[in-house]
Amino acid sequence: MYTDYDVIIVGSGVAGLAAGIYVSRAGLNVVVMEKSSMGGELMNRQLIENYPGFADGIQGPELAAAMLAQAEKSGVEFMNCEVQNIKSKNRLHTVYTNNGIYTSKAVIAATGSHPRLLNVQGEAELTGKGVFYCATCDGPLLAGKSIVVAGGGDSGVSEALHLANLGCKVTILVSKESPKASAVLLTRVEENPNVHIICNAKITEIKGNDWVSEVVYEDIRTKVPIELEVEGVLVRIGMRPNTGFLKDVVECSENGQIQVTEEMASSKEGIFAVGDIRAHSPAQIGAAGGDGIIAAMTAVKYIQML
């Protein structure tokens, strides 16, 4: 069966690159397709301290560069394009992109996720005008300013500490009784005079004309609205899986994550899913790499049996 590639990998984050390295080392023809910056979500991460092998941590872009270099050295091909749809028939997978149509014997989806929105008044209108979703990308523009961070998980608290390092005065608004971030991060917040956490706080509106000027939040217990004068809002309340191009192809959970077996196989033969987009993912970088390796090894065995 002739195809353009043995394996097409969609997404160039840790999961996709790990899969690419293993597939290429098995002697198969593989391409990694990415619609934005090669390296995926790593390009938007600051100091990563829980990835094995780096005692002092490592910057996301630095880790991405190392993995990209390794993948390229292994023989992985890279292509900047957006995958729009996949059709499968008789063990042939046709991948439709904005850069053409390609065929493969197997597909590994590693497209990661995108930020959840607050969906409150003013968010859409002020996005790019003080409302942002990545401190690494936009934080330097707000250095020294007063910022609200929506979200008390590891990601939100890490981003808040990064903004504090840029001289920002940061208020973390958490809609729960307590933040979900790790004890290590919360200790750092306690030790940082420029970061303050408010719990039971639900953001209801973001105000501003040409730029963010205020955030309105409601105390969940008293229902009393409170206004904060700020110059920026970072939203980090979770992620949604980027699985729209596969929603009619494979079985997904209610929140859009792809159902997979222990070998990362989806409900469609020859299509695998790894990283944040697969059901029950712990959404950790190390786990994503493991997913990619498992899927690659499974895909290689699958192709060898065709």
Strands, helices and their partners?
Layout (H helix, E strand, L loop, with lengths): L4 E6 L3 H12 L4 E5 L12 E2 L9 E2 H15 L2 E4 L2 E7 L2 E6 L2 E10 L3 E3 L7 H4 L4 E2 L2 H4 L7 E5 L3 H12 L3 E5 L9 H9 L3 E4 L2 E8 L3 E8 L5 E5 L2 E4 L3 E3 L29 E3 L11 H20 L2
Parallel strand pairs: 1-2, 1-8, 2-5, 8-19, 10-17, 11-12, 11-17, 12-13
Antiparallel strand pairs: 3-4, 6-7, 7-8, 9-18, 14-15, 15-16
Helix pairs in contact: 1-2, 1-7, 5-6
Structural features:
seven-stranded mixed β-sheet; FAD/NAD(P)-binding domain; alpha/beta
Protein described:
This protein has 306 residues and is α/β, with parallel strands linked by helices. It folds into 2 domains: 5-114 and 239-304, FAD/NAD(P)-binding domain (3-Layer(bba) Sandwich); 117-235, 3-Layer(bba) Sandwich (FAD/NAD(P)-binding domain). It has helices spanning 14-25, 60-74, 123-126, 135-138, 154-165, 183-191, 285-304, and strands at residues 5-10, 30-34, 47-48, 58-59, 77-80, 83-89, 92-97, 100-109, 113-115, 131-132, 146-150, 169-173, 195-198, 201-208, 212-219, 225-229, 232-235, 239-241, 271-273. β1, α1 and β2 (30-34) form a beta-alpha-beta unit. α1 (14-25) packs parallel to α2, α1 (14-25) packs parallel to α7 (285-304) and α5 (154-165) runs parallel beside α6 (183-191). It starts with a strand and ends with a helix. The model has no long low-confidence stretch (mean pLDDT 95).
